[in-house]
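If you are new to this repository, start here. Below is one unmodified record pulled from the training split, so you can see the exact layout before writing a loader.
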Amino acid sequence: QVQVVESGGGLVQPGGSLRLSCAASGSIFNIYAMGWYRQAPGKQRELVAAITSGGSTSYADTVKGRFTISRDNAKNTMYLQMNSLKPEDTAVYYCNVLTAVTNYWGQGTQVTVSS
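And here is the target side for that same chain:
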């Protein structure tokens, strides 16, 4: 059984920082890429950042220069360092793990940016 678990969300003031973690465990093989998505109330889920097993990264324009994605392949763990947070970054953040045959989702972690 595969488990994908996010952690690190919370309440932060504008301009602050948070670091999200995503750990994938269980019978999960040949991970091609991992990504962070977010969904704000009333909006569609959107891709925030992604990283391949080779280390190539991509970011949504809205977070470039503020967010950094990284991963530890040996631990099947991914991170998202979020700096200079804005109220519009408020959302539930989801981890996605893409393998050769399917993809897995975590349960999400809430990030709220508010003064």
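Two things worth knowing about this chain: DSSP finds no helices and eleven strands in the chain. The mean pLDDT is 95.
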